[in-house]
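user: At home tonight, take the chain set out below, taking as long as you need, and be ready to discuss the fold:
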Amino acid sequence: MKSIIMKCGAWSPDECPDSWLEGSCEECAFAEVRTKKEGDSMKYEVIEDNAGHLYLFVFRGEETIYAADGFEHFPGVLKESLEDLARTGTTEDWEPGNIENPEEVYETLQNWINEGMGGAQLIADQDGVYPDRMGAAGMLEFGDT
C-alpha cells in the first residue's frame, strides 16, 4: 500500500500545517512528495514501568533506531515526539536517545510485561494508546486519550 505524504509531512494538502498561509498548501501540493510504502514505516512502543518511568523505543524492522527514557520529567515532550514521528516518519532530526544498551533495556521491560506482574506495561504504540494500562505518568502524558 502506498500513501502520498506531502513535503511538509501532512498526508494531504488539507492537513498541511501551513494551510492558513496564503498559497502554502498549493505550493506544498505541487512540491516534491515522498511515498511511504507499507513496511517502510517505523514502529514504536511506549512503555511505563511500575516506578513511573516512561520509555520510547522506535524500530525500523527488527532494528532499534531510537531509545530514550525520562519522559516523565517533561510532560508533553513524549506526545510531541510521537506526533513528530507520525508527521515526518523519521527520528533523524531528534537528539540522540539516552539509553546506552537499548536492546538490553527493551528485553528487560518486555520480560516484565510478559510476566504480567505489573513490572511494566505497553501503554502506546503505532496502533493506539491504551489508557487502561497506564499509571500516573502515562495518564499525565496522554491524558484522557
User: Anything to note?
Assistant: The chain has a mean pLDDT of 80. The longest helix spans residues 102-115.
